[in-house]
């Protein structure tokens, strides 16, 4: 039986669609957060919400010591009980270097002493984000902003916002986040071995494991307790040992180390394939440290801590997915007081050296639970983490304990938003609710916390602090001693059921497809048909930012004024930078901030002239009057230049005043550029994996032989195909041996499927679709309409408006209905930046209507813009990167669901720094980017084509926002459009050799080895599916797993049966 781990972001024959979108017309939660102290505040969230146009008052009060302080306050009327209120504001102080500013709320009945904090500074603006929930409906409330230390400091505020959400609106926002971050749309295609789609096949889909780690602490009481073990394994896929790994448990007296109990607990989690956190190496609270270390001299303590970390980490190397290295360091500093300010830094450094695959965490309380604890505010946590990382520490994870009294969901979400700006995995590590509350209240509060955690995209896992001891739990139990659920346990079971897909049954439709939305995880799919069963398992800113690379080689260089001719042959003055001694074989990355005067907006082009060459364009930006816009680009110097000039022009040739600031030019040698690419590939396209081998009792097995083989790739890499592939077995074999993605070159285009009005023929694309289905190759749909009139059916060009409207309606409905659920993407309206045939004839909303209809017809397909000369050059005024972004924005404002960015990639001489810069800017949109039609001009010889192709492919594969690459190399008897990979006998041409070399380089292949003394085997693999075979003695086990994109090591447990 084979399980399908297809719910990571992986495109297979069972391919993923867009996330499920709920119908909702209320306010959408804004997750924006900022760590930086900025020269100017950003705009208010929600346009200010109910604080829009309201100015704060300045109140004065007398402190207990008689001092008078003044502070800004907002007077709020008629707040509503039960609503969630999200508050944010930008803060600057003027008579202190820094201050912890706290927001509080005072009503007639209650005082919420903290609803958000920020460490504010003098001379710049810091962002405070928080919120509150009210248990009554006060007629008048005060929202105050004060120095937490009670000092009378000058607090300036700007861009304040208070946005209410009803309980229903809050819940719908949570569900929207869950549907996007925790679920995927899936289409199962069922076909026979010839690729013919099968209608009416019975489908059963069962989720057999969950992707999201949700677990609980366990104690030694679980050892030998079969009822406890059964109850635990039926619910949880993650664990942490409550106390058994702590220093006072493993070495209660000096030198007497005993790991018997944690070893037995580890056998239990291993035997049940449960991932486990390591908690903890050190605890900074002296009351929770071994008593015998408290009075040690510094040298003796140093010796003891060295022994502790070496012993613990060596014994449990690769056993635990995380380690809490120095617990609660924001509240306590026992070791730093004794051993010096670098003690914690040394702990993290040593832990990483011993177990480099484990994710190392800070772990702290009162960060997410409240903002009333000055020791552990969100900014304090961030500051400490950055401090450690600047000291060289490998810090991989954010641990938030989560010991709650009354949870404050808006505050919790705001804190998670701010922590998420660090880009590190966040875990809720010790969640419970105070025992001061009734069991029913505990359950209510627990559900609030868990829903908030699960719905936040930055939370990677949740662990409850509910280990069952002899008679109780630390604060909250899920069951009684007979394992009958308490109210909190009922809440957990309810959520576990809600957050799992369960079993789905249905039949394939007329397209041979079955669709559903499922939670991420592993699934078993059974298909039955005719007694056969298959089990398969982008903004303009008020001030420019600082220059990149601190300015690079033009740091502190004064701009000169350059006289050049505009397009109208009029002398124009331009800012310029004079460069001396540029080196050959060097990539130069250029950036600057630009503002203009003399017109409202203009496309500004940066150009380069050297003593032997001219680069007409090395970057563009749509600049505006009164604010600063960012230009990013670059160039390649193949030979050295003694003198060069960078200058700026209005692409329209008009005379305007161009001002440049924060310019930067950074050189990279070829080697440095390649190393940067490889670092990105290692981070984005690969993942560490550790395989744990044990017997059925959880005993680790040293010396087991491991063979790991990658059997499919996660990254879609393919080529266009033409009808010439039909019946051509050598072409078919050559293609599917290499590629996992395809696009039909011309066969789906309107002029191919309906060459005469009303005579529609899909025979050829149907046959091509059977080929890709049969070989489990995903396919893009190209295209529905093409705005270039030269590639529109000849009979369409002379239609009247009404006739054309009828024809396009028939075209889109016919095509989309025939191929519903068959293609992962659709290029809806091809090359609309360069041409506008349909909008000229049908009105300015024609493209918008095309997208809307396509979305309704095939809601699971991703809809793409597809355009040339966005990436290939910046000299095409029609398709600059900002023009592309602007057009996307227009469609979005019109209500179009735009899912993807298509960049054709028809290159002559590629410019890698420009390619990367354009991709960086497009990536700010947060949409998947595909290179859809990559080739190199046939004006170049084949060897040069190959060299340039490699440069383009490496640039694409190494960029984190590229989700797939398609070559435009369909083979015809006459050759190919611009570039072929093979000759007509399928012997590689130089470009084909490049493709084969890269395919081999970007695949893990077979890896062999033996498990170490921890029963573990680790490797670094490209994302995709793997088969693994384990041999130990006369026992063999076969398993399969998937490496999906994640910052944490993938742990996979394999058990050998007796």
TrEMBL record:
Q: Which GO terms describe its biological process?
A: polysaccharide catabolic process
- Quote the SUPFAM superfamilies the UniProt record gives: (Trans)glycosidases
Signal peptide (UniProt feature, chain positions): 1-23
Q: In which organism is this protein found?
A: Abeliophyllum distichum
Report a single Gene Ontology molecular function.
endo-1,4-beta-xylanase activity
Q: Name one Pfam family in it.
A: Glyco_hydro_10
Which controlled-vocabulary keywords does the entry list? Answer: Carbohydrate metabolism, Hydrolase, Polysaccharide degradation, Signal
Family classification: Belongs to the glycosyl hydrolase 10 (cellulase F) family.
Highest taxon of source: Eukaryota
Q: Does the keyword Hydrolase apply?
A: yes
InterPro entries per the UniProt record, alphabetical: GH, GH10, GH10_dom
Which protein is depicted?
Glycosyl hydrolase family 10 protein
Q: Which residues form the GH10 domain?
A: 199-495, 702-998
């Amino acid at each position: 039986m084979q399980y399908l781990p297809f719910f990571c972001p992986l495109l297979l024959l069972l391919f993923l669609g867009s996330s499920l979108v709920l119908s909702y017309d209320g306010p959408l939660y804004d997750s924006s957060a900022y760590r930086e102290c900025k020269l100017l505040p950003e705009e208010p969230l929600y346009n200010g919400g109910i604080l829009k146009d309201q100015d704060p008052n300045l109140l004065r009060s007398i402190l207990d010591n008689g001092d008078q302080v003044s502070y800004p306050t907002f007077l709020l009327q008629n707040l509503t009980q039960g609503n969630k209120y999200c508050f944010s504001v930008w803060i600057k102080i003027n008579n202190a270097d820094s201050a912890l500013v706290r927001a509080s709320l005072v009503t007639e009945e209650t005082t919420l002493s903290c609803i958000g904090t920020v460490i504010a500074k003098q001379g710049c603006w810091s962002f405070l984000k928080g919120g509150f929930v009210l248990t009554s409906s006060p007629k008048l409330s005060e929202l105050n902003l004060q120095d937490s230390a009670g000092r009378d400091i000058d607090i300036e505020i700007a861009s304040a916002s208070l946005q209410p959400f009803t309980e229903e609106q809050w819940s719908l926002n949570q569900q929207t986040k869950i549907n996007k971050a925790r679920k995927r749309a899936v289409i199962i295609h069922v076909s026979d071995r010839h690729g013919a789609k099968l209608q009416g096949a019975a489908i059963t889909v069962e989720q057999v494991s969950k992707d999201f780690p949700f677990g609980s602490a366990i104690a030694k009481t679980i050892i030998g307790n079969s009822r406890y073990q059964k109850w635990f394994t039926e619910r949880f896929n993650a664990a942490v040992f409550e106390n058994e790994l702590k220093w006072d448990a493993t070495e209660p007296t000096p030198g007497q180390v005993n790991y018997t109990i944690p070893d037995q607990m580890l056998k239990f989690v291993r035997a049940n394939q449960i991932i486990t956190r390591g908690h903890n190496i050190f605890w900074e609270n002296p009351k929770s440290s071994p008593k015998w270390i408290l009075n040690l001299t510094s040298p003796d303590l140093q010796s003891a801590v060295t022994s502790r970390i070496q012993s613990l980490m060596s014994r449990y190397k690769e056993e635990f997915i995380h380690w809490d290295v120095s617990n609660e360091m924001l509240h306590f500093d026992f070791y730093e007081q004794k051993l010096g300010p670098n003690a914690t830094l040394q702990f993290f450094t040593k832990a990483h050296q011993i177990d480099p695959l484990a994710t190392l965490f800070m772990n702290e309380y009162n960060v997410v639970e409240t903002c009333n604890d000055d020791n552990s505010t969100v900014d304090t946590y961030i500051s400490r983490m950055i401090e450690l990382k600047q000291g060289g520490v490998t810090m991989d994870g954010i641990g938030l304990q989560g010991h709650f009294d009354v949870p404050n969901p808006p505050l919790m979400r705001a804190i998670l938003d701010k922590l998420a700006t660090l880009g590190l995995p966040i875990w809720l590590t010790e969640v419970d609710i105070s025992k001061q509350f009734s069991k029913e209240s505990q359950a209510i509060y627990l559900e609030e916390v868990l829903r908030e955690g699960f719905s936040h995209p930055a939370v990677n896992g949740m662990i409850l602090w509910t280990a069952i001891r002899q008679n109780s739990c630390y604060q909250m139990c899920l069951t009684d001693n007979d394992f009958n659920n308490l109210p909190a346990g009922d809440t957990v079971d309810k959520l576990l059921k809600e957050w799992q897909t369960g079993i789905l049954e249905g039949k394939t439709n007329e397209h041979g497809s079955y669709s559903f939305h499922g939670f991420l995880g592993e699934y078993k799919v059974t298909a039955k048909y005719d007694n056969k069963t298959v089990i398969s398992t982008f903004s303009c800113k008020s001030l420019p930012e600082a220059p990149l690379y601190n300015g690079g080689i033009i740091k502190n260089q004064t701009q000169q004024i350059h006289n050049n001719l505009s397009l109208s042959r009029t002398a124009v003055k331009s800012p310029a930078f004079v460069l001396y001694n540029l080196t050959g074989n060097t990539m130069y990355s250029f950036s600057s901030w630009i503002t203009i005067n003399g017109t409202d907006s203009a496309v500004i082009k940066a150009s380069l002239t050297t003593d032997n060459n001219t680069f007409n364009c090395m970057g563009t930006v749509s600049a505006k009057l009164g604010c600063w816009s960012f230009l990013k680009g670059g160039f390649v110097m193949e030979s050295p230049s003694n003198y060069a000039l960078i200058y700026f022009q209005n692409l329209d040739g008009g005379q305007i005043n161009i001002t440049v600031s924060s310019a930067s030019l950074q050189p990279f040698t070829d080697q440095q550029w390649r190393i940067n690419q490889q670092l990105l590939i290692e981070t984005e396209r690969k993942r560490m994996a550790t395989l744990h081998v044990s017997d059925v009792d959880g005993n680790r097995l040293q010396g087991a032989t491991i063979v790991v083989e990658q059997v499919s790739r996660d990254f879609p890499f393919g080529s266009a195909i033409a009808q010439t592939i039909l019946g051509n077995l050598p072409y078919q074999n050559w293609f599917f041996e290499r590629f996992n993605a395809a696009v039909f070159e011309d066969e789906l285009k309107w002029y191919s499927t309906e060459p005469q009005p009303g005579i529609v023929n899909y025979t050829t694309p149907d046959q091509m679709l059977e080929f890709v289905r049969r070989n489990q190759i995903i396919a893009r749909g190209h295209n529905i309409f093409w705005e270039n009139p030269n590639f529109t059916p000849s009979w369409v060009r002379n239609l009247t408006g009404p006739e054309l409207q009828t024809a396009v309606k028939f075209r889109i409905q016919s095509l989309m209905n025939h191929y519903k659920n068959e293609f992962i993407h659709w290029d809806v309206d091809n090359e609309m930046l360069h041409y506008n045939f349909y909008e000229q004839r049908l009105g300015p909303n024609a493209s918008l209507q095309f997208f809307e209809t396509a979305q309704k017809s095939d809601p699971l397909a991703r809809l793409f813009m597809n355009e040339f000369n966005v990436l290939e050059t910046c000299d095409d005024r029609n398709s600059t990167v900002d023009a592309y972004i602007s057009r996307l924005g227009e469609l979005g404002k019109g209500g179009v669901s735009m899912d993807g960015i298509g960049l054709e990639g028809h290159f002559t001489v590629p410019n890698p720094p420009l390619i990367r810069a354009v991709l960086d800017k497009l990536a700010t949109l947060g949409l998947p980017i595909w290179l859809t039609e990559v080739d190199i001009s046939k004006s170049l010889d084949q060897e040069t084509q190959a060299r340039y192709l490699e440069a383009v492919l490496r640039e694409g594969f190494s960029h984190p926002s590229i989700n797939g690459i398609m070559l435009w190399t369909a083979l015809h008897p006459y050759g190919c459009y611009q570039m072929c990979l093979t000759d007509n006998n399928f012997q590689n041409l130089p470009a084909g050799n490049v493709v084969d070399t890269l395919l081999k380089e970007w695949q893990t292949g077979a890896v062999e080895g033996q498990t170490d003394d921890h029963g573990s085997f680790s490797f670094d693999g490209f994302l995709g599916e793997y088969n693994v075979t384990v041999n130990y003695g006369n026992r063999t086990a076969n398993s399969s797993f998937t490496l999906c994109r994640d910052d944490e090591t993938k742990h996979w447990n394999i058990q050998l049966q007796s």
